[in-house]
Amino acid sequence: LIFSVHYVQIQTKNVTRLCHTKSLLTVNGQYPGPTLFAREGDRVVVKVTNHIPNNVTIHWHGIRQLRSAWADGPAYVTQCPIQTGQSYVYKFTIKGQRGTLWWHAHISWLRASLYGPIIIYPKKHASYPFPKPHQEVPILFGEWWNANTETVINQAMQNGGGPNVSDAYTINGLPGFLYNCSAKHTFRLKVIPAKTYLFRIINAALNDELFFAIANHTLTVVETDAVYVKPFQTNVILISPGQTTNVLFTAKSQPAPNATFLMSARPYVTGTGTFDNSTTVGILEYVSTNVRSANSSLSLFPVMKPTLPALNDTSFAANFSQKIRSLGSKKFPAAVPQKVDRQFLFTVGLGLNPCPKGQTCQGPNGTKFAASINNISFVLPTTALLQAHFFSQSKGVYTTSFPDNPPFHFNYTGAPPNNTRTLNDTRLKVVPFNSSIQLVLQDTSIVGPESHPLHLHGFNFFVVGQGVGNYNVTTDPSNFNLVDPPERNTVGVPSGGWVALRFRADNPGVWFMHCHLEVHTSWGLKMAWVVLNGNGKSQSLPPPPKDLPSC
Ligand code: C2O
């Protein structure tokens, strides 16, 4: 067992982008934050100290946290936040996972600047199931606001309207030269002809699914959400907030002299309302080409631009997700639950609630935007759910009455129903240890069909089916892929469609599930599962660490 100990200081730092300087929340003064390197089997210990005025927590997105739910990180779910001047030590062991994941703040919208990669190498002497790359390069997408994050949240929450859209998308914190004032804030990557690279791509954007491509080059997808997949080639990838995708990239053996290849990312948008359709670019160039300074005019050189799908290309999205299959090899089998103990159908979507007295709301017709799962807009408590559960103190904190099915016919019809209201409550769903769960997520059309990247903490699930329109409980299961479905922690519920997931509830604790579009999470598109202890110590959650923050 290897211990890696990290000290993390959350502090403010002045950062300039788009000619705007603002005081940014950072980890150790870095934006984006530092990479957490580990190896499968490692014990990871991270001491997080809060030096900012805000409460904060850190979540290790995609880490299974087997028997270590106390280290998962979502505020008011598994822990109370770390207050100013306080510390908390996150301790967990990485079991049965290797690949790319990421960490981010998990309170309010602080993940806007508090995020970074987690790179888990295979065990010593173990290798990748693909040729060893010459070099590995993390590529993180993010969003930059000139305004304060607080102002952005208030717009979405207090005014009840859509959030202010970000001023730029970024690649590794850099907007790229297409944006105002950003020529020197452009990500540049130099590659050697004929060499193969592993790009570890992470979508840390707050509110946008993104297309990504590199001009004149194909990408070979080899891993999604830290699970190996059957390799496939594509010109473009689609990646939702929360997801990670590893691709192999082989540099041309004889690139055109001086050619510059742009890498671009731009949103995939299926909803209505205001959004930013701008493009972040980075520059890929060959070491053989003339070295030019960061400020030299690009127009002197041939610049190849990639073509990205249309903003709302739902058929690209459907085809792309169909191509992702678990590797399912002897060494890396796909352990898909073949039979199911518990079945659930959850609707996910937006709603419109009346504007509270004394407020002016900016939603359609003066309403306030809401979002829900099975019509419940989840309300976080002011204490932590996991503690309440562990110490049997749920009274006044939550109930266990989360509905197994939509409360009324509430699924995708293509037209909004009359009742668009949601119910605000804190309801959890309890399942026994080791039960195998089938969960169908159905997009609604209350405000309009929209794709929702749903993320489940504490588990990987298998995406056994997907489709457009309404899920059909009698005919659709016969088409489920129970052989090599993708295994992930975040899945895009298709716009006006559904996905069917299966997972084994083998991890006791309280586990958050939510849309990874931050604005939808804030509007209530979230809930939590309680997975009970099994028999004996090995199937039970140990008591909390002594330094677990209190509220
Ligand atoms: Cu990446 Cu609950 O989050």
**What composes the largest sheet?**
6 strands, mixed
Strand content: 35-45%
- Chain-averaged pLDDT: 93
The number of distinct helices, counting runs of at least 4 residues, comes to 4
Rg from alpha-carbon coordinates: 23 Å
Distance between the termini: 33 Å
GO cellular component, one term: apoplast
Function: Lignin degradation and detoxification of lignin-derived products.
GO molecular function, one term: hydroquinone:oxygen oxidoreductase activity
Family: Belongs to the multicopper oxidase family.
Summarize this, please?
It is built from four helices and 33 strands. It has helices at 149-157, 314-323, 385-390, 518-522; strands at 3-17, 20-27, 36-39, 43-50, 58-61, 87-93, 99-105, 115-121, 135-144, 168-171, 187-191, 196-203, 209-214, 219-224, 227-234, 236-239, 244-250, 260-268, 280-286, 303-304, 342-353, 368-373, 376-378, 423-425, 428-431, 436-443, 452-456, 461-468, 487-488, 490-493, 497-504, 509-515, 526-531.
Write the layout of secondary structure elements.
Blueprint: E1 3-17, E2 20-27, E3 36-39, E4 43-50, E5 58-61, E6 87-93, E7 99-105, E8 115-121, E9 135-144, H1 149-157, E10 168-171, E11 187-191, E12 196-203, E13 209-214, E14 219-224, E15 227-234, E16 236-239, E17 244-250, E18 260-268, E19 280-286, E20 303-304, H2 314-323, E21 342-353, E22 368-373, E23 376-378, H3 385-390, E24 423-425, E25 428-431, E26 436-443, E27 452-456, E28 461-468, E29 487-488, E30 490-493, E31 497-504, E32 509-515, H4 518-522, E33 526-531
Parallel strand pairs: 1-4, 3-8, 9-12, 11-19, 18-20, 21-26, 23-24, 25-33
Antiparallel strand pairs: 1-2, 4-6, 5-7, 7-8, 9-10, 12-17, 13-16, 13-18, 14-15, 14-17, 18-19, 21-22, 26-31, 27-30, 27-32, 28-29, 28-31, 32-33
Bound molecules: CU-O-CU linkage (C2O).
The site of CU-O-CU linkage has 11 residues, from strand 5 and strand 32.
